[in-house]
Design goal:
Layout: E1 7-14, E2 19-25, E3 33-35, E4 41-44, E5 49-54, E6 57-62, E7 66-69, E8 75-79, E9 90-93
Antiparallel strand pairs: 1-2, 3-9, 4-7, 5-6, 5-8
Amino acid sequence: MANPPWGMWEVLLDEPAYKVKRITVLPGKRLSYQKHFRRREHWMVVEGKGVVTIDGKDNLIENGESIDIPQEAAHRMVNNGESFGEDDIIRLEDDFGRA
């Protein structure tokens, strides 16, 4: 489990072709604006709601909804709700000085 400044994440399943993570974004916090050159992602909100930005376009997603992040698309999530091997991350912007 990792505890970055915006919340925490843990790997639940790590297979050769895919990885499943639980990511918790604290209220009012957001992930780094980032992209990946070797993978795409599928995000599902299991509790709360948030705004997922993909290539500058904001998408509101809520409990039970999901969204696809295309490969090489710049993306991040902001937690607007009440609760809610990263070696290929290219951080484009980051509130915590990690860009």
